[in-house]
Structure to design on (73 residues):
């Protein structure tokens, strides 16, 4: 994922870029960690797919990742 981001064109003179705060980055990381844990729990049979979806929706509200529309379903 980082490699793909490094290939994106970047022009610091353009004003349509928005800066990401440390807090936003932390929310992204926290959501990603929670999502991966949920995936492992689902795969291990500890939770059902319905529970997975409910918890993931709750995590989206809690962590409010700015790129949540890019996360896999």
């Amino acid at each position: 994922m980082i490699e793909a981001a490094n290939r994106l064109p970047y022009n610091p003179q353009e004003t349509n870029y928005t800066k990401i705060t440390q807090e936003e980055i932390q929310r992204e990381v926290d959501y990603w960690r929670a999502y991966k844990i949920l995936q492992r729990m689902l795969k291990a049979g500890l939770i059902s797919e319905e529970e997975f979806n409910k918890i993931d929706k709750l995590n989206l509200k809690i962590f409010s990742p700015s790129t949540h529309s890019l996360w896999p379903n």
In short: Residues 20-68 form one domain. The chain has a mean pLDDT of 81.
